[in-house]
Design a protein that fits this description.
Length: about 90
């Protein structure tokens, strides 16, 4: 499985690999890819009608990674564009 460090994609220092790291495995173009994340807080099920366009202040290279946001009581959930991350 190929692993993509999301911190590097967002212009941050890479994560050190240890047993506490989270890898989310996704399927893309019939290939399994691991997305290395700092942490996974929760799994959210969202109705597509409730997903909003990302705000205008998310721009530049980093903004290209986001396709939408989902407002929740605890804050915002960001939806990422998988093709741009890979």
């Amino acid at each position: 499985v190929t692993i993509v460090d999301l911190r590097v994609k967002f212009g941050l220092p890479p994560l050190e690999l240890d047993e506490d790291r989270c890898i989310v495995v996704v399927r893309w173009s019939e290939e399994s890819i691991g997305l290395l994340a700092d942490r996974i807080q929760d799994i959210v099920v969202a109705d597509a009608a409730d997903i909003l366009d990302p705000p205008a202040n998310i721009c530049g290279v980093t903004g290209a990674f986001f396709s939408g946001i989902y407002p929740m009581e605890q804050g915002l959930v960001a939806f990422m564009r998988l093709p741009e991350l890979l």
